[in-house]
Design a protein that fits this description.
This protein is 52% helix and 11% strand. It is of the alpha/beta class and 203 residues long. The protein has a five-stranded parallel β-sheet, with helices on both faces.
């Protein structure tokens, strides 16, 4: 096994909590109606295009034209985004900070809209601790596309086989492996510690 010299963290659901239900549980109290709204209106595919760089204004206009009766809740997705990210995962953050303070090279690679990441960085100052971050919305590429992994490698001067990626999505983990990286699926901090130990990395 190649020695790991670079560690790359995803952000959402690895370092900070993200759950649209936290806002929409109040905005659309009926569970079935809310499930329909996320399956048919503000879908994950729709939201992913903001991660690819589409503006919220364009995204909202597009959906409001298709679903005029849901205009208010379409706008509420961005308007109440802050409620969807209520807290950090302190135990995961502690692992990341420990790695940085231990001299490890740590960067971030995330599918995130430009403006919401800027908001997150204002609220969670630990996001500024790593050496740098690749933000999908800034470069118009998203995980698990091969191009975003290659971009991150080039931007930060990493060696793919000596890079360990940590992400909560199996598709993104598989994408990293296809790009020649080592990668692990994040479930919780305890499992992450065990994964790091398996790769010979001490926090």
């Amino acid at each position: 096994m190649t020695e790991i010299r670079h560690i790359v963290f995803d952000i959402g659901r690895v370092l900070i909590h993200y759950d649209p239900d936290l806002a929409f549980g109040r905005l659309i109290p009926d569970a079935e109606e809310r499930k329909w709204f996320f399956a048919n209106v503000c879908t994950s595919e729709w939201n992913l295009e903001q991660d690819r760089g589409r503006t919220w204004e364009e995204a909202e206009a597009l959906l409001i034209a298709e679903h005029p009766g849901h205009a208010e809740n379409i706008r509420n997705f961005r308007r109440h985004w802050h409620e969807m990210v209520p807290h950090a995962y302190d135990d995961s953050v502690a692992i990341m900070v420990g790695l940085i303070e231990g001299g490890h090279d740590v960067t971030l690679l995330t599918n995130f809209a430009v403006d919401t990441l800027a908001e997150a960085r204002q609220r969670f100052d630990f996001l500024d601790r790593p050496r740098g971050v690749t933000v999908s919305g800034e470069i118009g590429l998203i995980k698990p596309d091969r191009a975003i992994y290659d971009h991150h490698i080039a931007a930060f001067g990493l060696e793919p086989s000596a890079t360990l990626f940590i992400d909560d999505s199996q598709k993104n983990v598989d994408g990293a492996k296809a790009a020649g990286w080592q990668a692990v699926l994040f479930t919780d901090a305890k499992a992450l510690k065990a994964d790091l130990e398996r790769f010979g990395i001490a926090g």
